[in-house]
Amino acid sequence: MRRNNERTYSNSLLPKTPIRYSTGGSGTSSIPDVNFTNDLDKQYKRRFTTTPPRPAISRTQAKRPTNSNESTSVRASLIGSSDGNNSIIPNDNNDNCSNYSPDKNLTSFHKDSIVELNQLQEELFQKKTIFDNLRDELNVNKDEYANLQSEWEKLYKEKNSKEQLLKSKENEIRNLNEKLTNKKKYLNEGHQLHLKQLEAKNNAEFNKMENEYRLKIEKLKQSKIKKFEDNRNALLNKVEDISNKILTNDDTLKVMLADVEEKNRTIKEEWLQKYHAEWKTNLEINEKITNEVGSLNERIEKELEPKAKAQKSEIKNLKEKLDDLQNILKTTQSESSNLESEILENDLKVEEKLRRKVELEDYIENTEVDLKEINEILIKEETMRRSLHNTLQELRGNIRVYCRIRPPILPQESNNTSHLKVSEFDDNNGTQTLEIQKALNNNSSNNSTTLKFKFDKIFNQNETNDDVFKEVGQLVQSSLDGYNVCIFAYGQTGSGKTYTMLHPKDGIIPATISHIFNWTNNLKERGWKYEIECEFVEIYNENIVDLLRNEHDNNGKVNDLLASPSQSNSTKHEIRHDPETQTTKVTNITTCKLDSKITVDNILRRANKLRSTASTLSNEHSSRSHSIFIIHLKGTNEITGEKSYGILNLVDLAGSERINSSQVTGERLRETQNINRSLSCLGDVIHALTGSEKDKENAKKRHIPFRNSKLTYLLQYSLIGNSKTLMFVNISPSINYVNETLNSLRFASKVNSAKMGGATISK
Known about the structure:
three-stranded antiparallel beta sheet, coiled coil, nine-stranded mixed beta sheet, 58% helix, 16 helices, Kinesin_motor_dom, alpha/beta, 13% strand, disordered C terminus, nucleotide-binding, Kinesin
């Protein structure tokens, strides 16, 4: 009941929205006074002035405790803290509160009341918080209401002032309307009066203008009438004149007619005279024409008709020809159309060819650039090739000895060559071995010994001169590269030396010349130009003979094949050396330029005729001298500026033979002695070179007997230093010449054992 009363009381005290009403339009408001709210606040403060509640205690906590500890905690929660501010049970004295202890025999009703009291207190404080919030809202609303009321009063005052202003404006408008009506009335009256005045004025002006126009019209009318009368009078006068002329016109017409007839008569007479004259002339012309017509008719009958017939036949023929020509024209037109199509095709082909030409020109330009680059590369490769080629030749040996076995000459010699055995080429050592069996007793073939000889290469009986030149060509190339080269053939007489060196078709000398010409032509593209000169001499009985000298032939005529001056056999030739350039020159010798193979063939043919040969028991055509074909190769490269100078000595030595076997006497004996002496000197020189190479410390002091023979003295620089030497030892396959073969092989082995220093290019 108490809570309900409090709720009703609080609801009755809550502010409500005031209701505005007016009494008699006085503008007063029924909003409550502000003092009412202040009194209400005072009542609220007096009614709700309790301390804040403590936390609520549930019924389970408020039950009787089961033990003393629980009862103590409950009592503590009920009693509160020692200060007594938050105690539920009122306590006037704080000191006594600490000594207060509730009765242990409190009833459960009292405890329930305490719990309910706490709950009510909690609800009270919750409602108090709600009330405080509502009160705050009320204060805010009161402020807003006061503001609204002040604004409303302000607006109300403005409304009253505007109503008064509106009434004053309405009065002003009413007055203005009255003034406007009065003014309109006055203006209408003035306007009517002004219109009447203008109408009277316009009438007066109109009458005045009407009178003026009438006067002007009268004046114009009178002037027109006067002018018309004048014109009428003038026309009447003209009519009278014309009528008078008409009356007098017949006389004038008669006069004029007479004049015209007179003129016509004179003209007629003149015309008749002219006509008569023309008639006479026409008669004469007619007579002439008739005569001419008669003559023409006669001519037509006699001359023109036959001609006409002939011309008709010709015309007929011409028509036929025309038909033929038209047919031909059709055919020619068809042919021309075909030709035009062909021309178009040809034009297309020409365009294609022109395009192809342009492409080819571009290709040629590109190829020219490529060729220039290739030429530069080839020039560099040529220099590299020379260096590598020389290195290869030095590795193979600056002095080499090849052996060649001549095939047997049937039927003079037996084809039994079982005493000769050639082994396969040894690639590891670069040599080839020849085994030869020599019988110790001529009557017994079982008692024999085998001798072995090693050479750089051995050519058997089946190999040709072309096979030989494949090996020799490398040294020929060295001479083109600027090195001194000597190739000589050694062997007994009749062993095939001259065949190897001077055979016209495939000998070493003709093959060498062909190789030189071919190679120099190829080197022209790389900038090399060569001057090729040659000398051909023989050493006969230790005398030098020029084989290119001019001699009278059998018919007594001088052979002018060579350009050198005429020389005799008595001309003296001396050998001169140049130590600085290591070159050799023979005085009073003929030098010829080699420009073609024909020139070379003529030179070789002439030299063979002049060479000294004789018949011996060993060989019917034995060479009795050493022939030396000297080729000078001077090369210049215009692009790189390189120069080279090489000398190639191609030597065909005289046949070595024993005096006992050849049984020569007299002049042949002296020739044989000189040949053997020069060959022996050649062996001594090679032996001395071998010794000097082994004993390098005493090499300069050691004497090498070059001067003991013209052959060794002439070949001095081909055997030392700047040189490459190749010896062919030619042997016979016949068992009858085993001793001569062994002598040749021993000499060749002696040469093969010589080791020469590295070659250098002669420039």
